[in-house]
Amino acid sequence: MDPTLNKEILDQFRQNFYSDDKNIFAQNVCSRVDPFEVCLSRKTLEETHHVYEYKVESEAKPVSNQKNSGRCWIFATLNVIRLPFMKHLNIDDFEFSQAYLFFWDKIERCNFFLNNIVETAKRGESVDGRLVSFLLNDPISDGGQWDMVGNLINKHGLIPKKCFPESFSCESSAKMNQILKTKLREYAKVIRDLISKGEGDLKVQNMIRDQMNNIYRIVGICLGVPNETFTFNYYDKNKTYHSIGPITPKAFYEEHVKPVFDVDNKVCIVTDPRPSNEYGKVYTVDCLGNVVGGRACIYNNQPVELLLEATAKSIKDGEAVWFGCEVMKRFAGKQGILDLQVHNFPLVFGVDIQATMSKADRLIYGDSAMSHAMVFTAVSLDEQGTVTKLRVENSWGEDRGEKGYLIMSTEWFKEYVFEVVVDKKYIPLDVLDVFKQEPIVLPAWDPMGTLANVS
Questions:
Q1: Pfam families in the record, alphabetically (predicted)?
Q2: Is 372 a catalytic residue?
Q3: What is the CATH number of domain 54-453?
């Protein structure tokens, strides 16, 4: 059969299109309005209510906003941590500095990239091979994973936002990243040239030290350089004045935050249903991370039902849950609804989207991957104890959903949530034992690592 789209075939397509008045009507509407808005299901909107059976004791203010940056993983982490911290200090308005962790992630991740260049060169990887080409394509991004933020907090601590506020390049990071990407590619060539000439580790690491001095200057100019110590003054809910400091960010975390939220007590459980990746195994992604010498990104792969159960247990116990998902599928943005039925695509287009593709198929064929991190703060269950819906704290300001909060159906969770972070006490012992295994290494471009590559 002739595979070309000849005139006879194209004429038949045209005839088929205009033979159905519904196509003309849909064209008239969609040519003037956002097609996703046209497909919104009125019935789903009517049946969606932000009322939950179990909810964390109090939701923090203000609703955070990552602006034009890919810092969702940092915002989600700090949104989880601030809840028990605010309760401990008896305050109702607080944010940790997202800019502070962003600064240190840029510094650490540039150093991590340069050392990856060393490692891949020693492996004999060609500069035009898939691995090095992948690393060079996006040498510094804004995204990250749970283990990566744990590395930053354990090494550099935390600081209140008022002590290290946002900057232009925090809220709109593209231009700073553009500068860094060009320098890192330039530096990668210098490093590979040294190694190809047979230069030893000492000379290579001295070169990286000089390169990182320039990187530090660039990042410091764009984001500011955090002070070594700070003083945090605040009023509690009783209008009583308090002061903490002068204190280092690391001491602040260890003395005032860690007692109520210890990042090392939290574990990341993922669900990857691809046949190639067994449940009950641990995985990592080649060349993924941010701190040289820090812990690797480890994925304990389990059925999605376990993630849902652990999430419900945590929220019922009053602890919010960090999670990673693919946010833009089956999502009504303005209304803040994550539901498989929120759009009626067949009604408008005559075909559904992803009608025959499973979660595993979407991962395999490149139509799905983790792209955003947020926080679960509430959950509802039916009479059998099955989760029916969840409340989500986002980091896109108050303009979406219910003043910044989204609502998610259980069916959406099963299709588009890929990982949750909960305290170890909510995970069965046999699942925790899986972390003791030697991780299976996935390639650097695997979709399970994409949350760390968000720009």
A1: Peptidase_C1_2
A2: yes
A3: 3.90.70.10
